[in-house]
Design a protein that fits this description.
Blueprint: E1 2-4, E2 12-21, H1 25-32, E3 41-44, H2 53-56, E4 62-63, H3 70-73, E5 89-90, H4 113-126, H5 135-141, E6 154-161, H6 167-170, H7 172-177, E7 181-185, E8 188-194, E9 201-207, E10 213-223, H8 226-236, E11 260-269, H9 272-279, E12 282-284, E13 287-295, H10 297-303, E14 308-314, H11 321-333, H12 340-352, H13 354-365, E15 378-384, E16 393-400, E17 406-411, H14 416-435, E18 439-441, E19 492-494, H15 509-527
Parallel strand pairs: 1-7, 2-3, 2-10, 3-7, 4-17, 10-19
Antiparallel strand pairs: 5-6, 6-13, 8-9, 9-10, 11-15, 11-18, 12-13, 13-14, 14-15, 16-17
Length: about 525
């Protein structure tokens, strides 16, 4: 069932077998594992069904390091969490990503990819992803040749995109109909309260913006609040331990990681249509498969680089009808329609070149390709892993929000290994594209990467918040163990990308869901 705590009496107490904090992908995935069981599950969600400005303001934070846009616009306090903003891209981490790498400080997971594979299978079913198809099979079925990159340097992999990425809509009716699962909307967790010995959790305190207070008591608790908010809640829970819950060794909030997003510059193609045939997304049985050019493990080892992949980005010409339609679409989605004159201009531009639009419709509906524009800039884009850094961190600021919670202070830091990886990757890409006759890239466009400071101003975050409650078997070096249980606390788990020791290059949601399904199995074992 789904209820709104604003309709409850102030001071109400709720009891459950398991309390989950957060109804995003992680919280909903764990809750769904208990559908049809006798276990009573309560899920606290701070938002409602739709975006609410007052709820979003609770995310306001102080950015004290590098600029970081998604700390504000990349999070959503709403049923479904940030899946309401997510496109649905999913890709497993490689086995290599779980291993310790001598040149990457603090690398290595206490679990292997092989141990996680059964949970990846289940997570992919949650996302309705279907089977993974290698690029060679995709190209063969579409009658094209895959790019013959040097196999020692580059390979092409394909991410898949969930057809139903928003958990708040995809699973709402399942949750509403479940008699043993209660989603409490507008229930913002404000404190995790431990026993006097700080060895167990006794209750969760929560509030509504309307001023109502509540308490949940349970046998087991799972924090599923995302990479930033998980650290914030645990750091702010100081009733027994002044340093915060699970922070006895000052590890909580440290090792904040992001995927670095960067567009390198414009590529001059030998034949635009050839690039589009190779690098546009494929649609098979309605499922999107997006080609990604990836640095091989061998190249990472040889040059001592981080994990990185990239894509060819086809932008519409500024004067095209496609660009106008995109602007109109963003305005509608953002509920910020332009004025009458601007609206008329955009509609006129959208219809001025009907041939462009007809080509896209044909390409998508008949050819089953992503239908990128036939004219406009072509860019190299990349998504790069970040090396774990204990000084890149989430702490608590001095100001408080409407609920009395300390605001987040984020100090995002990047270093030499990230710069070196980006520079080497674009150099390899450019050389390989030129060798294969696919196009030319002016390397002067990436001169900024040679400056150890200036390059950071061109780096953008990807709204992939990871690492602040990292997994390590040694409590002096991590917050949770290999089962995602908080060190020293028998009944507290963290279901979040916050537990990632390293971030690989892939979007984090699929790996996070695999870990959450694994947590659910552990909870079932404990509950009996």
């Amino acid at each position: 069932m789904i209820e709104d705590f604003n309709q409850f009496a102030d001071g109400s107490s709720v009891a459950a077998d398991i309390c989950i904090i957060g109804a995003g992908a992680a919280g909903i995935a764990i809750a769904r594992e208990f559908l049809g069981t006798q276990r009573k599950i309560v899920v606290l969600e701070g938002g409602g069904f739709d975006p609410e400005p007052d709820s979003q303001k609770l995310f306001e934070s102080d950015v004290i390091g590098l600029p970081h846009a998604s700390i504000h616009d990349g999070r959503a306090r709403i049923l479904g969490g940030t899946t309401s903003l997510w496109g649905g891209q999913a890709l497993r981490f490689d086995s290599f990503d779980f291993q310790e790498r001598s040149w990457v400080p603090y690398s290595g997971w206490p679990i292997s990819r092989e141990a996680l594979n059964p949970y990846y299978d289940r997570a992919e079913r949650i996302l309705n992803l279907g089977a993974s198809i290698p690029i060679e099979r995709l190209c063969a079925s579409f009658g094209i040749e895959p790019p013959a990159f040097d196999p020692a340097k580059l390979r092409v992999e394909c991410s898949r995109w969930s057809p139903k990425p928003n958990f708040g809509t995809a699973y709402r009716e399942d949750l509403r109909a479940a008699p043993n699962i209660t989603i409490l909307l507008h229930s913002n967790a404000t404190a995790i309260v431990t026993s006097e010995a700080a060895s167990t959790i006794e209750k969760i305190e929560f509030k509504t913006l309307a001023g109502k207070n509540g308490v949940v008591t349970a046998r087991l608790y799972v924090v599923c609040c995302g990479g930033i908010e998980t650290a914030r809640l645990m750091l702010a829970s100081t009733q027994v331990q002044c340093c915060g819950v699970g922070n006895q060794h000052d590890q909580l909030g440290r090792y904040f990681q992001e995927h670095i997003h960067m567009n390198f510059g414009e590529l001059r193609p030998a034949r635009r249509a050839q690039l589009q045939n190779i690098f546009e997304s494929f649609f098979v049985d309605g499922l999107k498969h997006a080609p990604l050019v990836t640095l091989t493990h061998g190249a990472q080892i040889e040059k001592q680089l981080l994990s990185i992949h990239g894509s060819v980005v086809f932008e519409p010409a500024a004067d095209s009808g496609i660009a106008a339609m995109k602007k109109l679409f963003r305005a509608v989605i953002g509920k910020s329609m332009p004025g009458k004159a601007e609206l008329g201009r955009l509609v006129g531009r959208s219809l001025a070149r009907p041939g462009e639009l007809l080509r896209l419709v044909y390409r998508l509906q008949v050819r089953k390709r992503a239908a990128t524009p036939s004219r406009g800039p072509i860019l190299f884009g990349a998504q790069c892993e970040m090396a774990p850094n204990p000084d890149s961190r989430v702490t608590l600021g001095t100001s408080k929000d409407r609920l009395g919670m300390p605001r987040v202070a984020l100090d995002w830091r990047l270093g030499e290994l990230e710069r070196k990886t980006l520079l080497e990757f674009v150099s390899i890409l450019a050389s390989e594209f030129e060798r294969l006759g696919l196009g030319e890239f002016d390397r002067k466009q990436v001169e900024f990467l040679k400056d150890p400071v200036a390059w950071t101003h061109r780096a953008h975050d990807s709204a992939h918040h990871m690492g602040t409650a990292r997994m390590h078997e040694d409590p002096r070096r991590g917050v949770v163990d290999s089962q995602c249980q908080v060190h020293g606390i028998a009944n507290l788990f963290v279901g979040s990308s916050a537990v990632f020791p390293t971030s690989a290059r892939s979007n984090p949601t699929l790996t996070m869901l695999a870990l959450c399904v694994r947590i659910a199995d552990r909870l079932k074992q404990i509950c009996g």
